[in-house]
Amino acid sequence: MNSLKILLVLAVFSITSTGAYLYLGIYNFSADEPHFEITEELIAVARDRSIKARAYKLEVPDDLEDKERIRRGAGNYDAMCVGCHLKPGVDDSEIRKGLYPQPPNLAKHANDPAQQFWVIKHGIKMTGMPAWAQGGMDDAAIWDIVALLQVMPDMTVEQYTELVAISDGHSHADQSHHEQHDTHETAPSGHANEHHDEKPDGSAAAATIDDHPHAPGSKPHAH
Predict the structure, then answer these.
(1) Could you read off the pLDDT of 163-172 as tens digits, one per residue?
(2) Which of 140, 161, 180, 222 has a 20 to 30 A CA-CA distance from 74?
(3) Is the entire prediction scored with pTM above 0.85?
């Protein structure tokens, strides 16, 4: 009985002291003051398990290696993601230095595609990672970015830069994305992936991801 009373007293004291600790604002929530190590570990485990528990149900498309997917994904990634998650040839950014936890450098390593899709679509609480689906990004456009993420760690700076140049840029709304996809599929043979840049003399230069010297699948530059 005495042992039970002691446990109850300790439990009440623990709850009361924790409540007071949080209510009085003693815990520092500033981004330049890291969590306690044990807090950081608990959050990391809970976060990773939460993502895996939900992402495993997703069906990964069979065409993630499709060059059109990668091309479209490059434009959106460069417009929406590089400030936090970087790109080939960039090791840090102004905003990334001030974020806590610091976002992963996706130019350095690929991750499970289903988990990447889930994170891009739903975001992660209290990390600065938004739920892009809430901003109008459809599943197909998210998978396009995931397709890029699978090959980006093997890209040179030149390959990435020129891939973005032949992309559609920042374009991911539900309707516009599907319209672009239909346009690429129904374009005349030999012109499905054309991207025209205006030359100074007024003529148009066409480039395709298939014959581009730095496109994914082409022989990379020596490092």
Answers:
(1) 999 999 998 7
(2) 222
(3) no
